[in-house]
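hiii, so i know i said id send this last week but things got crazy w the move. better late than never?? heres the sequnce for the chain we talked about at the cafe, plus the structure i predicted for it. fair warning i was half asleep when i ran it
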Amino acid sequence: MFRIEMSVLKLVSHKNNPRLRTSWIIIGLFTIVVLLEFSTPPDYVFGYLYIGPIMIANARLSRKATLQLTLVACVLTILNVWVPGRFPVGASTIASRLIAVLALVVTGILGDRNRLYQEALLKQQAKLHAQKKLASVREDFASTLTHDLKTPLLGALETLQAFERENFGPVVPAQKKVLTTMIKSHQTSLQMVETLLDVYRNDMEGLKLQLAPVDLVEIAEDVAITLTELASSRRVHICCNYGESDFRKFLWVHGDPLQLQRVFTNLLTNAINHSPRGGKVEVVLEGGSSYQTAKVIDTGAGIKPEELPNLFKRFYQGHSDRQAKGSGLGLYLTRQIVEAHGGKIWAENGFPNGAIFAFCLPVLPFQMSVSS
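okay and structure toks below
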């Protein structure tokens, strides 16, 4: 009784096996073609019909099985010239069957190539899928790690500032100098962490803007004032001018004040850091009929031509002195903000030296600026 049940289970499993089902279909098709071939005169070439089973085998069976099947089909097609031997055979019949054999061989070769191509394609797709999954895991890990790093950095910064304010007792001048250095270092680290967090958030969710009528001149001047201490520590002079005009202008755009402030902060900080001592950083603000343009010009070493196309890419750090420091995210974030405003950003070398980082934003329509 047990043996009978096992036999039934094996039979059911064979019926549910797609490979076995395919084999039975191919055997059935071969049987039909063989009957047609060997029951008719050799002049009637039915060998072309073997192409169907060969293609099915190529799609569902192994390469070895397909090759064997193709070989069997070729042998049967040629064998029908002499078997069963009841009909006379002419040269044209042999030629027709050789052509049929050639067609079967070509079908087998093309099918095999197609199989190899499909396998390579599937491997490539699997590799790309794995890479995307790995990239997604890395993005999530970096985002989570960045978010978790922010809290202890803030705590450490608050503690150092409390020490500097002498909340825990008197601090001698030498200690104050060390505390100031540590605070600046932690502020830089916090700024890098926040930049990294913003970049990942923008890539995943898109940059969300709080749009309002904004004067680029006012923002540029405010940022220049906040960076005066940094510029002084590096003995760099910051100035603003207004293109061909000697008078202060108003460059109205429809933008997010906080985000545009970050744009000027990133560009000015970058220019200050890469200007020599005693150098100058100039902010040029120019109005136009369609776009308002802001340029930040420094007197540093300039940019290598091969690095210009990559400056605004994420994590890019070139080999020149200009890109020796930083995370490679500041300019990328700046590009994100400018492009989210519908603007353009670019970099070029100044004359005779230095670099120019510029961006332009669409002009605010006159009616909106008036109503504001």
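btw Residues 73 and 112 are 16 Å apart (CA to CA). thought thatd interest u
miss u guys!!
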